[in-house]
């Protein structure tokens, strides 16, 4: 929803300075939605139990997930052909989630951190698509979903790196204000507020208002490929896209064998959904999850034309030792509203599609393996 208050009204209603009100206006702050959640916290307080799923869930077994055929099989070759044809026909839009900062490894914009042999995450995403575009002499589109933190830097980078083969654009998320646990707007001692972006589930609304997406969809675009900027191993794989097209569901979620806590596939009411760990009651949790949602997705483009209203989750964040409240949307929850395929992919060796680098220890542990993966996929040489 587009902000319906003027700068003067924002300043008066929320006791803001001019600069803060201008930022809220630029990044489409939604006063009605903000007031709804703030008033609820004022009345009821923060309660983690609000997020709990009341429906019974079951942990899936490997047989419950779709699995990619071996790379040397005829079936794999057929899936690859299907995916390549969709790419060549201009039916593919790649969207990279790039709103975060590199606070865990030196600061700055995470997408632009030069941690892969001097190349940034963003550049690797571009080179990945450029390989296919050059090979087939076509043009493709790459969008980065940005936040108020990364938007200006990423927009400048996109403008200077876009070329005839990979047209690069940005689409900024909306913005909101963190609350104290009593529902009042949090302010620093100097009066500054604390901004945040409402999670990657905001992608549904972000693309629905994007001119780049409108042009893509109007030109016959069918499939939106989504991945995290810090997962460099989540390259374009035409066979994965081919699997999505062949299976015929509206959404495909790449799943890895991984016991980390986070979003994971669960059987709910006889169907598979992505359920976040914090949405499970203590009695519904298990000691280790056998599978993890990698947040690498294929979503049919028509979903973004009439986006589903995802649920806001109440999240407590510790900011400089102070517990603050924010409200987040998670893209995996889309699997609750549309038919979704849970596709088991490799997370080891040169075929791995899940090598997230979210901290210095991740970089130290995975960098060399990721460089080998990218070299094997001919994105750039191992000694680049």
CATH class of the largest domain: Alpha Beta
Q: Number of folding domains?
A: 2
Number of strands: 15
Shape call: globular
Fraction in beta strands: 15-25%
Major β-sheet, in short?
A: 8 strands, mixed
List the helices and strands in order: HHHEEHEHEHEEEHHEHEEEEEEEH
What is the straight-line distance between the termini? 45 Å
Query: What does the average pLDDT come to?
Result: 93
Radius of gyration: 21 Å
- Unreliable stretches, pLDDT < 50, 5 or more residues? none
- The CATH topology of the largest domain comes to Spore Coat Polysaccharide Biosynthesis Protein SpsA, Chain A
User: Structural class, from secondary structure content?
Assistant: alpha/beta
- How helical, in percent, are the residues? 25-40%
User: What's the arrangement of strands in the largest beta sheet?
Assistant: 2-15-9-12-8-3-4-5
CATH hierarchy: architecture of the largest domain: Alpha-Beta Complex
In DSSP terms, counting alpha (H) and pi (I) runs of 4 or more, how many helices?
Answer: 10
Please, what is the CATH homologous superfamily of the largest domain?
Answer: Spore Coat Polysaccharide Biosynthesis Protein SpsA, Chain A
């Amino acid at each position: 929803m587009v902000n319906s208050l003027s700068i003067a009204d924002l300043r008066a209603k929320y006791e803001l300075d001019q600069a803060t009100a201008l930022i809220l206006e630029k990044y489409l702050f939604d006063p009605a939605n903000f007031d709804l959640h703030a008033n609820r916290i004022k009345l009821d307080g923060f309660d983690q139990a609000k997020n709990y799923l009341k429906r019974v869930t079951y942990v899936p077994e490997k047989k419950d997930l779709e699995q990619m055929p071996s790379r040397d099989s005829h079936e794999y070759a057929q899936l690859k052909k299907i995916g390549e044809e969709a790419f060549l026909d201009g039916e593919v839009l790649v969207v990279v989630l790039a709103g975060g900062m590199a606070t865990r490894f030196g600061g700055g914009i995470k997408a632009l951190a030069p941690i892969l042999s001097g190349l940034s995450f963003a550049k690797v995403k571009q080179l990945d698509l450029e390989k296919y575009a050059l090979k087939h002499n076509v043009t493709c589109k790459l969008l980065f979903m940005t936040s108020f933190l990364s938007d200006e830097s990423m927009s400048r980078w996109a403008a200077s790196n876009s070329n005839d083969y990979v047209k690069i654009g940005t689409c900024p998320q909306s913005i909101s204000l963190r609350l104290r646990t009593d529902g009042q707007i949090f302010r620093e001692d100097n009066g500054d507020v604390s901004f945040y972006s409402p999670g990657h589930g905001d992608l549904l609304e972000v693309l629905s208002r994007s001119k780049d997406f409108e042009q893509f969809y109007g030109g016959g675009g069918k499939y939106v490929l989504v991945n995290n900027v810090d997962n460099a191993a989540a390259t374009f794989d035409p066979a994965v896209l081919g699997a999505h097209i062949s299976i015929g569901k509206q959404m495909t979620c790449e799943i890895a064998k991984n016991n980390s806590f986070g979003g994971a596939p669960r059987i709910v009411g006889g169907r598979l959904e992505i359920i976040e760990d914090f949405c499970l009651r203590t009695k519904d949790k298990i000691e280790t999850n056998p599978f993890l949602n990698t947040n690498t997705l294929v979503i049919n483009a028509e979903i973004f034309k009439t986006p589903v209203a995802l649920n806001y989750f109440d999240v407590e964040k510790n900011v400089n030792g102070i517990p603050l409240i924010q409200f987040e949307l998670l893209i995996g929850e889309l699997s609750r509203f549309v038919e979704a395929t849970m596709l088991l992919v490799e997370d080891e060796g040169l075929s791995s599609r899940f090598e997230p680098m979210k901290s210095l220890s991740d970089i130290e542990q995975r960098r060399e393996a990721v460089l080998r993966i990218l070299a094997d996929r001919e994105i750039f040489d191992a000694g680049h």
